[in-house]
């Protein structure tokens, strides 16, 4: 017996969190009965339907890495008609992004229809490193650099910056380009780090996720993850 939301995710319909939302909204039925309790246990023989459509249990899982362009939304659909990350990938599978990048942030994002895989990578306790390139509107002094390395407090929780490298300084324009590695997954977290110092992030791109990078992908390009990469991502999380 498995929890309903977990089984929905395993079948590749959506992420576990989204499955919980669907249950709360009374969109999920098991054996013809509407389910609203998140702790409901079901097994593989039960017939699960969402919005009246029975879930296919024999779905093939797919895994992609995408170099997200600017002005693309990190979601499955957008009520304002903007292009989403899902629109950029040629597949009939119900894939969705693992985590988010802001509308104006570019770079590495993973997509899948494997709910367990997505949940594993997104869970805060697994602390998978994410590396960003940030262009800011100020040249940091030594105290500010020390403060960032020491850890900035965001919403009463310190953000651990594991690596911080200065990539470029433009004294004429008073800008700086930095590479920083964090283990955070909170929304807008890189921008919030600099906001605490009254500094604006002019450009932001994620260039690394664990061992993965996007050096071989131009903006808007994607590829399927290899089996070796998928297993390595799982092992990264499980070894924490």
Write up what this structure looks like:
This protein has 240 residues and is of the alpha+beta class. The chain folds into three domains: 2-54, Roll (Structural Genomics Hypothetical 15.5 Kd Protein In mrcA-pckA Intergenic Region, Chain A); 63-124 and 216-238, Alpha-Beta Plaits (2-Layer Sandwich); 129-209, Pseudouridine synthase (2-Layer Sandwich), CATH 3.30.2350. Helices cover 22% and strands 31% of the residues. The protein contains six helices and 17 strands. The strands form four sheets. Strands 7, 8, 9, 10, 13, 14, 15, 16 and 17 form a nine-stranded mixed sheet that branches. Strands 3-2-5-6 form a four-stranded antiparallel sheet, with no helix packed on it. Strands 1-4 form a two-stranded antiparallel sheet. Helix 1 (4-10) packs across helix 2 (16-24). It is elongated and about 65 Å long. It starts with a strand and ends with a helix.
